Amino acid sequence: MSFTIISLFIGAAVGFGIGYVVRQVLGARTVNSAETKAQEIITSAKREEQEAILAAKQESIKIIDEAKREISNERQEVKEQSKRLEKRESLFEAKLLDVDAKEKKLDAVKTSLEEKETKLATEQQEVTKRLESVAGLNREQATEQLLATVESEAKEAIVARIRKLQDEGAAEIEEKAKRVLAMVIQRCAISHAADTMTTTVDLPSDDMKGRIIGKEGRNIKALEQLTGVEIIVDDTPGSVMISGFNLVRRHLAKRAIERLMLDGRIHPTRIEEAVLEAKRELALEMKKAGEEAMYQLGITGIDPKLVQILGRLKFRTSFGQNVLQHSIEVGTLSGLLAEELGADVTVCKKGGLFHDIGKAVDHEVQGAHTELGYRLMKKYGLPEKIAYMAIAHHEDRPETVEGVIVRTADAISGSRPGARRDTVERYIQRLEEIEKVATSLPGVTKAYAIQAGREVRVFVTPTEVDDLSMVKLAQQIARTIESELNYPGAIKVNCIRETRVIEYAR
């Protein structure tokens, strides 16, 4: 047993020793191989380094050569530029010398001219003094006398030329205007006959008057209070009269009375019901009238409330002319004129239709109908250029072409024969005002308004007003009439200057 153990120990020791020797031999070989490889790597690196250094040297030599060539080229260009600059500088110096020489010559010429001018002025003064001594007049007096002579000789030629130019221009403009207006009026076939808004209510019998008055006048008082008018019951057989400034209220009262007579029951409660029914009926009629007017002109997109107000014009008259029919006619004429003249047709149509919209409320709201119409159109969303038509149709010189067109259409509609009625008193007053304006100017002896106020003939004093002054006088009379008077259409100013010489042969 012990021998076996000892044998094992001896075997292990021998194996360990052999293994150690083997490892030492193998390690030495490995180290030698590694040193060889390292030496090879170092040798290869040194060779590559030498090659890189050589390539870098060659590249640097190449770059230096290229830089030298570029520097040489630039030096050559600089030399050429310096040569050109030297050449230009020499030319510039030559030109400067030339300019200096010319400037000296000009100075000499200027000095000579100044001396001659001074000498000429002196001689002219001497000649002027000699002429003044010979003529006995100084320079200012001679100038005035010469101008007076030229003016007197050329006055007739100037007047004739002015008249010729005015006649030619007026004739051409009038011909074109007549042609355009005739075409437009021909295409507008709206009736201009005015509808008479009657205030008379026919009764089936005179007994109805007592029923309308009622016990102690309670029925008629209720009617007047609800409608805002005055009902006149007089001795006129078979009718009663309705009095009031507002035509809508008068029409409302008339419809209410007619409804009461049809129903047969006339008492305050029934009167109130009849007035309410007449109001609803009248409101529907106004709306329908406004819509029909819009349809006739092909206008859309207007606020229904403004259309309702437009329909109120059906029950409004101006100088006997129905305002709604007048507005439709102005809108139609404005659209046709805008087509002929190349203006905005939509603005002219809408502006012409609503130009008198202020008259629908001028009995209820304080202010001129032009201002009221402008505020109404702005309130219901119409643009400024359309709302301005309410003001433009009463301005002497509207600011826009469309304003001039609407004003012209308004004048055409109002000046149609039979379109408007006027009282004898207003007619005579207008003629007197025209004659008064003409005779108020100096140099006028007499003035006569003829042709229903469409022409005024003015006779001037021939010793105070000459032909040239008469042209200015006619223009002044026309401008004064435009600024001070209100009239339909246009007024022709005809100035007459006549000189009569009477002698007797005995």
Automatic annotation (TrEMBL):
GO cellular component: plasma membrane
Molecular-function annotations in GO: hydrolase activity; RNA binding; RNA endonuclease activity
Residue ranges the record marks as coiled coil: 31-126
Annotated HD domain residues: 323-415
Keyword field: Coiled coil, Endonuclease, Hydrolase, Nuclease, RNA-binding
Class of enzymatic activity (EC top level): hydrolase
EC number of the protein: 3.1.-.-
GO BP terms: mRNA catabolic process
A Pfam match: RNase_Y_N
Function according to Swiss-Prot or TrEMBL: Endoribonuclease that initiates mRNA decay.
Family: Belongs to the RNase Y family.
Name under which the protein is recorded: Ribonuclease Y
Source species: Candidatus Uhrbacteria bacterium CG10_big_fil_rev_8_21_14_0_10_48_11
